[in-house]
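== Folding task for one protein ==

=== Format: two labelled lines per protein ===

==== Paired sequence and C-alpha cells ====
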Amino acid sequence: MKKILFSLLLISILGFFSSKSAENYHNSDSLSEKIETTLKNHVDNDDYQGAVLVAKDEKILFNKAYGFANREKKIKNTTETQFLIGSLTKSFVAVSVLQLVEDGLLDLNEPIRTYIPELKDNLGKNLTLHILLKHQSGFVPHLERIVDFEDKDVSSQEIIEIINTSSLLFTPGSEYQYSNLNYTLSAIAIEKVTGKSFAQVLQEKTFKPLKMYHSGVERKSKYPKERAKGYRKTTFAIKNDENIVSYALGSGDIFSTVEDLYKWDQALYNNTLLSEKSISLLFDGENSEFGNYSYGFRITEYQRRKGNKNGTLMRHGGTMDGFMSNLHRYSDDRLTVIILGNMRTFPIRKMTRELKEIVLDLKPEDRINLKLE
C-alpha cells in the first residue's frame, strides 16, 4: 500500500513539474510570437532591416535578423552580421578608461594634458577624463563643425591637430553638451598611456577575453568582412550611405553584432571586465540638467509592472550615416534589449520600448510618460 501511495505521489510530482515546464515553454513561445509580430510591423511599415536580441535573467528570449546586409547582392542579415554601432562606441571607451584606471595608468581627475601634451593649453588646462566622459568639456558637438572630412583614414595625431583649431563653448564642468570630441580625446588618452592603438586595447582587454570574435574597430584599410552596408531612405529611393569612421575615433568607429553585444552586456552584470567599485562609477548618473549622463551611459528611470517602483535604465544608442543602434539595460528586471539596424531612419526608441513592454507584460494604456526612457 505504501509503495502504491509513493508511486502515485511521485507521478503527481513529476506531472506538476512537467506541466510547469510546458507552461513555461508555451509562455516563452507566446512571448517570441508577440515580439515577432511587433518587429514584422516595423519591417513592413518602416523598412526596418537589422538584428534584434532580447534577453532576461541570463536567458536569450529572442534573437533574429531581418532584411538585407547587402541589398544589391541580396545578401540577408543574420544574427552574426556586423553593424557599425555609432555612439554606442562611447560605452566601450568608458569601460576601457576605467580598466586603465584600475591598472594605475589613468586618473579620472588628472589634467588631460598629462596624457595628451599636444593638446593646446587653452583647451586642455581645465579638462580631465571625468569631465570628458561626462560631456561637460564645452567642445562643439561634432568634428564636422570644424573640418571638412576627406575620404581617407586619419591618424590620432591629425585629429589632435584638428581639435586644436577649435575653442570651448563654456567653462569645463559648468554645463552639459554632448560632444563626440570628448570620447575621441578619451580614446587618444588610452592610446598614449598604453602605447597601443585604441583597436588593440579593445581587442586585448575586452573583445578577446569575452570571445567577441565579430567585433572590432573599423578603418578603410581594415574593413570587416561580414559588415552590413549602410542605407538611407529618400523620397524616391533607398541609397547607400556611410561615414568615414576614422574621424569618429572613440565616438563611433566600433562594429559589432547583437550576440557579441549581449556578451558584453552580461560581463557588465557579472563584473567580468571591471571591479564593483568601477561599475558603480560607470553607472553613476547625473541629473537631467546634465543629460542624465554617467560614463558612457545615460541613467534614467523605466516603468515596471503595477505595484513596483520605477527601475533604473542604463542605456546608449548610436545614429550615423546608414546605421542605428540601441542597447537598453533594464537593470531591476535583468532585461536587455539590443537593436541594430542598417537603414536610416526607423523608430528605434519606439521599437525598444515596445519590446520591453512585451517582456514585462505592460500594456500601452498603462504607460507612464517617462520622457527619457
Summary: Confidence is low (pLDDT under 50) at residues 1-26. The chain is about 35% helix and 15% strand.
